[in-house]
């Protein structure tokens, strides 16, 4: 059997605070491109077809209580 070497980072590499995380994110912002926002359009129910749910999943969902019970 081959023994694999696993690199575990030092605790110093894992330490940090929210301020350092925010700073890292701020430095990465120029590298991220956000897609243009588009308005969602409703889909006609006649276009929704081909959805199938396995009977075991349907039974599982049917057995769940409604939110707020």
Strand content: under 5%
How does the overall form come out from the CA principal axes?
extended
Oligomer: single chain
Number of strands: 0
Low-confidence stretches: none
Please give the radius of gyration in angstroms: 24 Å
- Ends distance: 54 Å
Helix content: 25-40%
The secondary structure category is mainly alpha
* Sheet of most strands: none
The topology string of helices and strands comes to HHH
Give the number of helices. Answer: 3
Mean pLDDT figure: 77
Please tag this protein with its features.
69 residues; mainly alpha; 0% strand
Topology overview:
Blueprint: H1 11-14, H2 18-28, H3 55-63
Q: What do you see in this structure?
A:
This protein has 69 residues and is mostly helical. The chain has three helices and no strands. It has helices spanning 11-14, 18-28, 55-63. The chain starts with 10 loop residues before the first helix and ends in a 6-residue tail after the last helix.
